Predict the structure.
Amino acid sequence: MTRSSLTLSSLTTSSLTRRLFLLAVLWIALALVVTGIILTDLFRIHAEAELGRRMAQHLDELAAVLEVTPDGGVALARDLSDPRFRRPLSGLYWRVDGPGKRVLRSRSLWDQALDLPADTLKDGEVHRHTLTGPNRAPLVAWERSLRLPGAAVPVRAAVIADASDVQAATAGFSRVLGLSLAILAAGLLAAAAVQVRLGLGPLRRMRKALADLRAGRTSRLEGAFPGEVQPVVDDLNLLMEENRAMVERARAQAADLAHALKTPLAVIANAAAAPGGTDPAVVAAEADRMRHQIERHLARARAAPALLHSPGGTVVLPVLRQIARTVARLHTERGIDIQVDGDVQARVRADPVDLQEMAGNLIDNAAKWCSAVVRVTAVAAGGGIVITVQDDGPGIPANRRSDVLARGARLDEAVPGTGLGLTITQELARLHGGSLNLEASQAGGLSVSLHLPQAAAAGK
Amino acid sequence: MRILLAEDDAALRRQLAEALGDAGYAVDMAPDGEEAAFLGVSEPYDAVVLDLGLPVRDGLSVLRAWRAAGITVPVLILTARGTWQEKVAGIDAGADDYLAKPFRMEELLARVRALIRRAGGLATAELRCGPVALDTRTGRVTLDGRPVALTAHEFKVLSYLMHHPGKVVSRTELTEHVYAQDFDRDSNTIEVFVGRLRRKLGGDLIRTVRGLGYRLEAAQ
């Protein structure tokens, strides 16, 4: 029983069905018990009021028929109209305390002495007492003080009724009410169970659809779902498609890389088998080609998954500073001054690792070619962020700039590096929905502008 | 000049050791991070070539441990981890230079040379002392512009002294920096090499400081 006991933790941790149903039980039980108590109480109050009204009439009649006898006592001029006053132990009685402790009682009291509690009343007041009568029955008495014409002292007149009738009626009502409410509760619980089951139906269907999907019977979550569930289903389908696209892209990239490596491998194999001995220059050139291919594919592969997971974007300036520090260290020999400046708020829609890669390639390239100074700026412009890296080196003539980007060509073999930095950065920028532009810098060198989409200011 | 080479790939380690040896360095090899860490604290190296993906203990953690222990030897990281994120991490851990695989041997040698020169506070690739010049790029030694032929050990002794001009260098220090760890050392041979260098380059170049060692002095 401990498992099914209605504790808070079972409410919060068990299944939705159980949770909803237990809440329904709780609420229905509470509502019906309160209803039962209120209705029973209303019934009792009404029954007692009715009894009180009738007894007031009896008391009025008793007052009307009382008269003073010539010997100074009191007597009834005639019997009261309700026959129950004359039937022994009928449950309806009267009593009058006259002057000189003389007491008149209804015949229905028979041999029972029924004493009223001591009380003093003003004229015209009606008091209500509860007392125990014949056969220990609960009695209620209504009493008033009367000043009869010709009498020296007031008399106490009382009518008394058996209250067990009211109690019995209330109990009977309560029983019937309880039964009705129990039936109502059963009906409501059945309705709640049906409602929970129907209401959660879409979730069960979704689970089945997911099972189908996992078993490979379908490629997406099929079917229409209610407005609350449909967005989740749509998102799941979208995620699935992105996943599939990613896997396909990865497969295509792996195939691409394999193809790209096969040609240089063939050349090396042929060179090794050449009759005149292997030409080292051929092997070196092909090794270079393979290295280019690998770096290019690696950069693309690294960028792809990150595109899906950069919700808040990346604040640009700290990354630029970090890269500038590292590049300066790598070029300590030449004592380069790398100045970083810009909009502190600038935030791009890209993973930090990708931004590091792009900025690293650009700043490192500028550091290789500059004569003393590299200037890096980041500003917001036209709904995006523009990162500009300028050097004071020899620059690239306008008509050769597109060559550098197109083939990853190196314009000068004397400066170490793979010559791929700008090409890889351009590819990364495109993957992020941005672009790369080459221009002449103010200092006469090269100015590279990296345009990237701006990230919405992070809410968290 | 003595170099620690921490690289786990046997083929690459052999190639590197050969190239560094040919360039006139005494080379100690460590195939894993644990051994590299130990050698780095126990032996006086002039430069370290450190792979990051080492077995037993990662290169970055070895480097951090050295820097935390106050060992300032110049370190060149040589690794297949070529992203900028990894370069930043390497430099922040205390590396002096970073070279990504695949690499050209000439580039590695140039960078090691530059590291050692920078550590000695020397600005140019050609070291001079009076009429004697040593080009660290080519390993050529000249006296008044005429090339002088030196044996490998003579070159090593001269190279170390020329990287520390004006400083008194003890025989023990010379021994430690001229021979690799597993070499059968004999500090008396240092005297032989110094004697031969004096014969080839002039007796004034290397002064003996009695009881302390040798000092390279530019002739007036």
